[in-house]
Amino acid sequence: MKNKAIGIIGGMGPEASEEFYRLLTYHAQKKYAAEKNEDFPEIYLASIPVPDFINNEKKKLTALNMLIHRVKEMNKLPIGFFCMACNTGHLLLGDLQKVTDKPFVSLLVELPKYLKGKKIKKVGILATPTTIRSKMYEKTLKQYGIELITPNSEDTEKLGKIILDIVAGRNKEKNLITVKQIAHKLLKQDAEGIIEGCTEIPLIFPKQHIIPMYNTLEILALAVLKKYYEVQ
């Protein structure tokens, strides 16, 4: 029996959702030996142009209402489970889960499990100001015995502006220098690696780098494919 489809809540931002789809395809090929069209997952990707609640928390309610409407509409599709290709968007996951009986594969669960598997005890994060201020990862990582090191307030604000630039396709080289500088500051505080805790960060950061980087887009893609192919 064919597995039910994957529903992706995306568009935050659009290029990150495109990269997430690419990672799903790539790992379906490499990890699950997908070769023919019928070997790949059926996927419904909703790229939703919500207002920027990621950097402006006052817009969160409007964004939430748009996402709730879309999840309700996607409930009519043959979807087995959802995921959200946005870290900060996970702050709204509890409200979205209330309008569907289909589960969400969540980074709040999958990221700590992944890092625990790597035996990480102390890790830094690059993320939006909203994600950092919410302490959403700090709380869930603590449950797994992992200490989270966050950027100082000045660097957090810099990251917010850089993420907006990435969404707009601006200043890649200049912003990469700043992101690396912030990452090195976290490493100096004994971080064993850095969480790319915003789905835009992997779009400018080199895939191979001397700094151990934990790409949340890739971690989510692997968890989604595991549920699709392995969990019945």
TrEMBL record:
<dbReference type="InterPro" id="IPR033134">
    <property type="entry name" value="Asp/Glu_racemase_AS_2"/>
</dbReference>
<keyword id="KW-0413">Isomerase</keyword>
<comment type="similarity">
    <text>Belongs to the aspartate/glutamate racemases family.</text>
</comment>
<protein>
    <submittedName>
        <fullName>Aspartate racemase</fullName>
    </submittedName>
</protein>
<dbReference type="GO" id="GO:0047661">
    <property type="term" value="F:amino-acid racemase activity"/>
</dbReference>
<dbReference type="InterPro" id="IPR015942">
    <property type="entry name" value="Asp/Glu/hydantoin_racemase"/>
</dbReference>
<dbReference type="Pfam" id="PF01177">
    <property type="entry name" value="Asp_Glu_race"/>
</dbReference>
<dbReference type="InterPro" id="IPR004380">
    <property type="entry name" value="Asp_race"/>
</dbReference>
<dbReference type="InterPro" id="IPR001920">
    <property type="entry name" value="Asp/Glu_race"/>
</dbReference>
